[in-house]
Design brief:
Layout (H helix, E strand, L loop, with lengths): L1 H25 L1 H16 L2 E3 L3 E5 L5 E6 L10 E5 L1 H5 L10 E3 L2 E5 L13 H8 L4 E4 L4 E7 L2 E6 L9 E5 L2 H5 L11 E9 L2 E12 L4
Antiparallel strand pairs: 1-2, 2-3, 3-4, 4-6, 5-6, 7-8, 8-9, 9-10, 10-12, 11-12
């Protein structure tokens, strides 16, 4: 009996260890999200204004913005996009779900974010306080910050093996409701993307602006 109990105990210990290893191995976000975000910043111009940090796409048409500690704003994360392609594709400003300011379309995130002293602090803050807002898309090998409303800021886990190192992804539905023809937004691709919802893979329509930073 003692030998049986000892054997059962050993089996339980091994089983728990195996489970712990299994989940740790699956924790791609915990292992690589923050470090790959740091690698992304090495490729992108980061502009500091009086109140705001801006991580800019190579062509300047899309920006990921957040506020500095001395900002007069409220610490909001947001996308700032060149509005003209959306206007040319039929955007009715009176029906627009997003603000337009200085020729930019402003899309605010629903993530409560503290003021930060540098762009490289951002993902660590989200990871610590709002980890559920960080996504890993296995088929694209991308990490992403879920900004809310189906909009995302994404980057490749491994830039050396991915041709879409930086991606701005928008939910087209609020824009189409405001008159935008999603197939005619210059500089943006309208495509179906495989996403996991309720444990199932489904195809979801997105507006995508992607950049290969290693070209």
């Amino acid at each position: 009996m003692k030998k049986l109990i000892a054997a059962l105990c050993a089996f339980v210990v091994l089983g728990v260890g195996a489970i712990a290893w299994f989940y740790n191995d699956l924790d791609v976000i915990g292992q690589r999200a923050v470090s790959s975000y740091g690698e992304l910043l090495e490729y992108l111009p980061q502009t500091a204004y009086t109140d705001t940090w801006q991580i800019k796409s190579p062509d300047g048409s899309a920006e990921f913005c957040f506020d500095k500690p001395d900002s007069v704003y409220s610490g909001n994360l947001r996308l700032s996009l060149d509005a003209q392609p959306f206007v040319d594709a039929g955007l009715d400003s009176a029906k627009s779900p997003y603000e337009t300011e200085g020729g930019r379309l402003i899309i605010y995130a629903d993530i409560p974010t503290p003021y930060l002293f540098a762009p490289n602090e951002l993902l660590g803050e989200i990871f610590s306080n709002n980890r559920d807002k960080i996504n890993y898309h296995a088929q694209m090998d991308h990490f992403g910050i879920k900004l809310g409303g189906g909009n995302m800021f994404e980057w490749a886990k491994n830039m050396s093996t991915n041709d879409k190192d930086l991606v701005f992804a928008l939910n087209p539905e609020p824009l189409t409701a405001a008159g935008v023809d999603p197939e005619n937004v210059a500089g943006w691709a309208y495509a179906q993307v495989p996403m996991e919802e309720d444990g199932k893979m489904v195809e979801v329509w997105k507006l995508l602006k992607a950049f290969d930073l290693e070209k």
